[in-house]
Design a protein that fits this description.
five-stranded mixed sheet; three-stranded antiparallel sheet; alpha/beta; 12 strands; 313 residues; elongated
Length: 313
């Protein structure tokens, strides 16, 4: 088993096609097929199930690819630290809940490193997908939050997947809405103020648990609710329907524009989960690549700077 075979297998699993993988890897399909057959024979398992529609992973294949990604990540991290260069682009990806500050930090990192040497990926996605992406090695880091409400079930899930949470900052609840919203000029907003307006939330999937909600106080009784799947739609609903969402209050005007504001939210004293602890998840005992460390530094710098700038608001 070679590093090259591992890279072949991961690429095939991502593309779901030997033809497409052979084009990306610049290798003839018969040679690629032969290499995978030799790997399966050596391991004594079937990694791919082949059909006229392409290839899919078997149960053994799913587990194998997870470990293969981890080995490749560590191999690439070693090359980055000790290697003498090369022409192959290094990969770095993150998965995140829908946070503009995570995108802003990603933008700053890419600006500094450029795209000639690295192949970057950022995935704004559902909470469970953030966890799965880091677990499978698709992303090196995942950005999400914990609160008194979701901490126990999410930490249990992270532990089961051999992942760990690294805190970055803590935030109180804010109401995020359009600057032209009737409540936009209030110094603080309470639940009663929000009754006439739809509460917007990110859809987490049909079988998702409410512990995966990206919005704090997700179990409160909201008389009007609308779900969306992406941040652009969420912003449009804020304007078109005077919708709102509950968030950390850490927003990026550079990316989202100045038409949206965060107003402090005054929750009931007994409300559970009204404080967010934002952080990133990684595999346990993982040596972060140099670029991952730089991204974490950008996140920390942005969050600290934002909170310092908006202190007392």
């Amino acid at each position: 088993m070679t590093i090259q075979q591992l890279r072949y297998a991961v690429t095939i699993s991502e593309l779901g096609s030997l033809n497409k993988a052979s084009e990306v890897l610049y290798i003839a399909q018969p040679s690629l097929t032969s290499s995978m057959q030799e790997l399966e024979k050596e391991l004594g398992i079937t990694i791919f199930s082949r059909s006229g529609r392409g290839v899919t992973l078997t149960n053994d294949g799913v587990e194998f690819i997870r470990y293969a990604r981890e080995v490749l990540h560590q191999y690439d991290a070693l090359l980055e630290k000790f290697g003498k260069g090369g022409t192959r682009k290094k990969k770095f990806g993150i998965s995140t809940q829908h946070y503009s500050f995570a995108v802003k930090s990603f933008v700053e990192m890419v600006r500094q490193f450029g795209t000639e040497e690295y192949e970057f990926a950022i995935r704004e996605t559902r909470t469970r997908d953030v966890i799965d992406d880091v677990f499978t090695g698709k992303s090196e880091l995942g950005i999400l939050y914990l609160s008194d409400f979701n901490r126990k079930p999410l930490e249990k899930l992270l532990h089961a997947n051999q992942l760990e949470f690294h805190p970055l900052t803590q935030c109180e609840a804010y109401v995020y809405l359009w600057r032209g919203h009737p409540l936009a000029k209030k110094p603080v907003i309470r639940f009663d103020d929000l009754d006439p307006y739809p509460c917007l939330s990110f859809e987490q999937g049909d079988s998702s648990s409410f512990y995966y909600a990206e919005e704090i106080l997700s179990t409160a009784d909201y008389p009007r609710t609308i779900k969306a799947t992406d941040r652009a739609t969420m912003l449009n609903l804020m304007v078109g329907l005077s919708g709102y969402t509950l968030c950390s209050g850490v927003i990026s005007e550079e990316l989202n524009g100045s038409d949206y504001i965060a107003v402090p939210f005054e929750a009931d004293d007994g409300a559970v989960g009204k404080r967010m602890e934002i952080g990133y998840i990684t595999k346990k005992n993982l040596i972060l690549s140099g670029i991952a460390q730089h991204y974490v530094q950008e996140l920390d710098r942005y969050l600290r700077q934002y909170q310092e700038t908006h202190k007392g608001e």
